[in-house]
Amino acid sequence: MKLLRMGLVMACLVGMVSCSGGSEEDLAVDGKLPFKIGIMTGTVSQGEDEYRGAERVIAKYGADRIKHVTYPDNFMVEQETMIAQILNLAADSKVEAIIIAQGVPGSMAAMKKVKELRPDMLFILDNPHEDPHQVAGYADLSLIPDDLRRGETIVELAKNMGATSFVHYSFPRHMSQELLARRKDIMEDHAAKLGMDFVYVNAPDPTGDQGLPGAQKFILEDVPRQISQYGKDTAFFSTNCGMQEPLIRAVMDKGAIFPEQCCPSPTHGYPGALGIAINEEQAGDMAQICEAIQGKVDEYNQQGRMATWPVSIGIVTIETAVDLAIKKVRDDIDITQPAVIRESMQEASGVDVTLVPFEGKDNYYLVLLDSIVF
User: Fold this and answer.
1) Quick check: pTM over 0.90?
2) Separation between Cα atoms, residue 183 and residue 86, nearest integer Å
3) What is the rounded CA–CA span in Å between residue 309 and residue 317?
4) How many helices (H) does the chain have, and how many strands (E)?
5) Partners of 365 in the β-ladder
6) Which residue spans within 203-303 are E strands per DSSP?
7) What is the pLDDT of residues 146-165, one digit of tens each?
């Protein structure tokens, strides 16, 4: 049935390429974009910040200009569904750019299928999970936190926060990703240089048999075990978005150290873990959210032991990607130029951004921001 659905979408794509009608000028009404942008994100449970980022750009440009879909939580098993969603976005002749956030497995296959019929389709990826060298051959631009540099910066931050041990939670699927595996190795080497114990813990994959609830339950149960062995001056880190909330909650309850999330953000795990309600007015105000987090940290007497980045890298990347897509499609600006990317990203974030290309790739950039310690 899934293959039939994908085949129908491909048929629509073929028909669209051969007989698409209308012009961009027809859509340029009331100052709206003369084209559409498709965005695929995870659900709130697996990628809340990217999801909220999509909501923000929809509020800015309109639901008739931004088409937002989500990939399944169990995307490893349901890759055909994910690919069909991308093909469905591309079947709309007015969609001229597609943003995939995060670039989960199946993204390259989807881009390849679309490019075969619509070679001019612009693809921007946030946090690609697949091989970076191959992704660079399909996506027009990829943006990802600088996991190689973070291998050092996260451990250094943990050390400065008082950590003597560093616990790293992950699972084989993530460790098969080049940048995550290299970051783990860098963390281990850097911890040794700083005289810290490095502990790798194999956690359940949220896309596996136990699902996200099983993975979260494991974190809540394992953090106290690690603290009983290594003490409260232990820093905890996980490579998975769905694990951040239980990890923050367990660290706060037990008085340990939390230097940074996998995808750093004041809104990633902190509000849910600490019972912070965020209304619509506060949703985009990172300063207010950080102030609320600080209040909870003070209640727990955890000052100096909890940290993140000052803004949501997930939300910022979505907003940046949309801005860059507009610049490319409407104005034909070269969006692979570092100065162009940095300008858009700093406007979206309001903070300084460090940007470096990945190993000579001029369309795959690693992003780094400074940390905020509560």
Assistant:
1) no
2) 30
3) 13
4) 15, 12
5) 143, 357
6) 234-238
7) 999 999 999 999 999 999 99
